[in-house]
Amino acid sequence: MPEACVPIEGIEWVEPRTHADHRGFFRELLRADGSSAARSVRQVSHSLVHAGIVKGWHGHVVQHQWTYVVSGALWVVLFDARPGSPTRGRLVERRVAAGADPVVYGFPPGILHGYRCLSEAQVIYLTSGTYDLSDEVRVPVGDPSVPYSFERLMHAS
Fold it and tell me: What's the half-sphere exposure (Cβ side, CA atoms, 13 Å) at 153?
């Protein structure tokens, strides 16, 4: 398994339950009886992101965040920036897309996430708190403190 695919402590990948029939489908993204982080959702936000856009790096001081792609596709990268974490400095990257194999990914405070939008996407963010600027962690894409470059993806499309 490549180093970029080694798990990071605290990151969860949830394959939501989908109930489909001839009318369409109903999908359970998170259940309050599931993850402890899912029980604490306090805000739900919706974002439209245009193809080719790179967003990053973003994290929280206190909040846990869940992300779900409603339509389109993202190349997601998560980075453990937590001091003292056994997985500090580790990266995980994965294609996350709407469609046949949907996933909800969650990460705790101190994990940074960024992504490249592979096709226009609609994204739902669920957080364990409401928006608070003092909880926001932002690191510019290209900052050497996060050893990842989206350049290879920019040239691949």
Answer: 21
Residue 5 structure tokens: 């695919």
Is the CB of residue 148 less than 8 Å from the CB of residue 117? no
Placement of tokens 């096709």 in the chain: 119
Tell me how crowded residue 12 is: count the other CB atoms within 10 A of its CB.
Answer: 18
55-99 tens-digit pLDDT: 999 999 999 999 999 999 999 999 999 999 999 999 999 999 998
Cβ–Cβ < 8 Å for 54, 114:
yes
Strand bridging mode 17-21 / 111-127:
unpaired
CB atoms inside a 10 Å sphere around CB 27: 13
| β-bridge partners, 124 | 46, 68
CATH of the domain at 61: 2.60.120.10
Which residue(s) pair with 14 in the sheet?
A: 104
Domain range spanning residue 125?
3-156
Count of the separate structural domains present in the chain? 1
From residue 5, how far is each of 31, 91, 136 by CA, in Å? Answer: 26, 7, 26
Q: How many residues does the chain have?
A: 157
Q: Give the whole-number percent of the chain exceeding pLDDT 70.
A: 89
